[in-house]
Amino acid sequence: MARIVASRREAMFLVDMAMPPDFSPPGTPLVTYLSIDDLARMADRRKRTDKADEFVESAAREAHRQYRDHHEIGPLVGQLVDTADETVEAAVRKFSGRLTDPADSAVLRQAAHTVARRILADPISYLKSADRTPDAIDVIAAAFAVDERSAGR
Questions:
Q1: How many Cα atoms occupy the beta-carbon half-sphere of 50 within 13 Å?
Q2: d(CA 152, CA 122)
Q3: Are 87 and 133 within one domain?
Q4: Contact in structure between 56 and 43 (CB atoms under 8 Å)
Q5: Can you give the pTM of this predicted structure?
Q6: E-assigned strands of the chain?
């Protein structure tokens, strides 16, 4: 890295995010070196803004929501996908006998999986969204005839 930095002809910032910093500042005026400690000191000197606090609070709230909801949504999504896969396999078994070329079963299976995944995409996306209603898990489980109690609830 020292060789690459020494060959630079344009100014650059080099931020060492390692804790503790894992290399020494390069000895060239073209490189401004900042360690993680330098960044922390800079942050301490700056006045926090309400906007920054709101952003951090919002991001933390969303991360917590996703973590909290994972145990409810993950098993339901798994059951939705498993049910779709079972339905696809049943349809392929049912219609494969009508195909003249056995290789066409793979095409039928892929087409059916594509359709099944597309049908599930929007409900799964809605389940994962912050905008979902409180009863969304129950409604989607009922709409797709999945027993949400056995899906981890």
A1: 0
A2: 21
A3: yes
A4: no
A5: 0.54
A6: 12-16, 31-35
